[in-house]
Structures are given as C-alpha cells and as structure tokens.
Description:
By secondary structure, the protein is an alpha/beta fold. It has helices spanning 4-11, 21-41, 53-56, 65-73, 87-96, 119-130, 146-149, 161-167, 179-188, 202-205, 209-218, 232-235, 244-253, 265-274, 295-304, 313-329; strands spanning 43-48, 61-63, 80-84, 101-103, 137-141, 154-156, 172-176, 193-196, 223-226, 240-241, 258-262, 279-282. It has 3 domains: 4-110 and 290-304, Rossmann fold (3-Layer(aba) Sandwich), CATH 3.40.50; 114-200 and 312-329, NadA-like (Rossmann fold, 3-Layer(aba) Sandwich); 207-282, Rossmann fold. Strand 7 (172-176), helix 9 (179-188) and strand 8 form a beta-alpha-beta unit.
Amino acid sequence: MFDPIQLSQKLARADRTFYTQEVCAEMVLKLERILQLKRERSAVILAHNYQRPEIFEVADYTGDSLGLSLNAAEVEDAEVIVFCGVHFMAETAKVVNPSKTVLLPNLQAGCSLADTADADDLAKRIVALRLVHDDLGVVCYVNTTAAVKALCDAVCTSANAVEIVAAMPNKSILFLPDRNLAAYVAKQVPEKEVIPWDGYCYVHQEIAAESVITVRDHHPGIKILVHPECRDDVLRLADAALSTSGMVKYAQKSDAMEFLAVTECGLSDLLAIEVPNKRFYRACKICRFMKMITLDDIIASLENLQPEITLPDSVRAGAEASIHRMFELTRTVRSPIGGAAFCQ
C-alpha cells in the first residue's frame, strides 16, 4: 500500500535530509504492519498535530485537542483507540468514550504544562480563593490531568478559551494551568477577573520575539500565526493567534503564500505536507514529549494492547462533567458526550 519513493517525496517536504528513500523503505514495513494490526485489533489511531510526520500516514484522525476529543467520542465501530499524543489527551479520550480500550503507546509522553497543576494543590487553592471571591468559577485548559478536570467547572482548549470564559456566569475565574493563555484570555474578556495559575508550556515559553522578528524582516508580507500559549511579546507580533487546527485552516484559506507558524515544530511539518503549494518558515521549538511515540511503539502497543489508560470512576465522572460543561458553553461545536448540538 505504501511506496517508499512516494512516501519519501511526501515527507521530505517536512525534512528532506531525514526522510530519504532508504529510511522510508524501512518505514513502509512498519506502516504496513500497523495497518494489519489495526484490522486485527479493530483499532483507530488518533494523532495530535505535533506528532512525527510518519505517524500521520496511519492516523485515522489528525487534529488539535478539541478536534481529537470529538473524534475520540465518535469512535463506535472500533474497540481500541490508540492515542498518539500525550498522557492527558489519552485520558480525555477515555473520559469521553469509557467503553473503549484506550492505549498510549509510550507512557513517558507526558506534558510539562499539565504537570504544573496538581489536583491536591488545586483543591486547596479553590478553598482559599472562595474566601475572597464568593462567585469564583474554575476553568482549566485541556492540558491538565483528569483529576484536575474533575475539580473544575469547565474545560477549555486554545480554540475556545475566550468563548468559555466569556460564557461563564462567574465574574471571577481561576484559569489554569497556563499563565500565558490566561493573560491572552484576560485581554479578550476584560469584563472578567481572570486569576492565572503560574504554569506554562516550556516549548512556547522559550520561543523568543527576536526569532519571529528576524523571519518577518527577511520576508516582508509573511503571515505570522502564533499559538496563544506563547508569551505576550510574541503574541503582539501575530497576524492571528490560533490553535494548531486554526493555523492549518488559516493557511489553507489565506491568499498569502508565506507563513510563520509560531508553535511546536511539528505543526510546520504538517503544514508543509498538507499545504505543499505554500511556504512555511519556522520560529519554533521541539516538544520532547510529543516526539516520544514512534512507529515501533505503536506496533508494540497494538500487539500487546498496552499501555492502557484507566481512570477511577469518580475521576472520570467529574472530568466528564467539566468537559460536558465546555460544550454547553460552546455554541458552535457538538458535544462529544450525549451528542447534543449547540448552534449559533
């Protein structure tokens, strides 16, 4: 099914020095083994936009956290969900589709941002803040553990964070864990008091405004697309602040021919492959966690049906409630829990 020459030509758009015909010939054998195992195990593969380019070749769904949450919930015919992303994403898949076996091919694929918010610490912070803010609402970014989600009123993603906070009935909002996204939301929703948690994504935090300015100065007219997890000095340089899927859609629809995707480098790989008629430059960083899953990991995971993601019933139910609340507050997206539609 896979041809090494065609695969090399395609993936070389992301990295021509690595994806040689020889490398791709070895990958073809692994990709075909994965397709065989998917059939045998009745499995689907979900892959985040930051994954290695070769993983997209066997993914049934590719997207950002919001899109993959929807995809995970809509899996009906398959028995197994293989999540190629990081740990909190696989947990979310289990929350929205608890009857399925959910596999994370490499358990070391965690998230430095999610690690900044501990459920016990959050519980104590909520108690303390409610002594001062009697109308406190708690919104957590999807980049959190299921245990943290279970303590929150609503979940959000980078694609809908502003809408969620604006729609919350509370005037005071504890927003966690990303302080940069919290600052971005606070600017967009000035009528709310947004109380930030002091966490950040090390990948986006390390992206420097100087790098963006250098690319912009060398390519007049380039469109700068920035993820809202970036620092404010970087966001101020953006033509648009967007989620990863939002960047893909922007690049596909825009009349511009040159873009700078300011986020984890995997998105630039995806854009180069999916939108080959346009040119994409980089002012990005690599996430070591997002690159941990390999084709070999996927093969081993499907062969052994491990590592499996499991959650205590109380945690799963609490996280489900906060995710459901997100979709109640989001007018344009269908909820993955119960299938209710929320329209404009």
